[in-house]
Design goal:
By secondary structure, the chain is of the alpha+beta class. It has 4 helices and 5 strands; from the N terminus they run ααβαββββα. A 5-stranded mixed beta sheet has the order 1-5-4-3-2. A hairpin with a 2-residue loop joins strand 4 and strand 5. It is globular.
Length: 139
């Protein structure tokens, strides 16, 4: 795959999460994808990726991501995504506030034969919690 194709596939996955488009996820993510940073209770593989997306939409039904940066080398992409959504459901123990929140996430994704086969990701959950009015208490 050429770099532009890898980037396009990564951007399609991010858009599909926001649009809740499982057909795109099925097309661009391998059934046995390895998520190196799963959320609690997340099953393995593509099913687990969809589990994560569904749980994110329970908290933020209008969740949408914008790829701000993507650096591609071979079949790997490193990306910075800004996620935005309105807090309408439980999120890390915080009941719905109705607030709109914006936070960044960083991903490294390895593609093979046109599909994501490994996914590393981390999100600025402290930023998200602060945006919802949460407080961080350090002992």
């Amino acid at each position: 795959m050429i770099d532009a194709d890898v980037r396009r596939r990564y951007e399609a996955i991010i858009a599909a999460v926001g649009e809740r488009d499982d057909a795109v996820l099925d097309r661009f993510i391998a059934a046995d994808v390895v998520d190196h940073n799963p959320v609690p209770g997340q099953p393995p593989g593509l099913l687990g990726f969809k589990y994560w997306a569904a749980s994110a939409h329970e908290a933020f039904p209008d969740l949408a991501g914008t790829v701000e940066d993507a650096i591609v080398e071979g079949e790997k992409v490193a990306g910075r995504v800004t996620w935005r959504g309105t807090h309408r459901g439980l999120f890390v123990g915080i009941a719905a506030t109705g607030r709109t929140v914006e936070f960044e996430a960083y991903h490294i994704v390895r593609f093979y034969a046109g599909r994501a086969v490994e996914w590393w990701g981390t999100a600025d959950l402290i930023g998200a919690l602060t945006g919802l009015g949460g407080r961080i208490v350090v002992p």
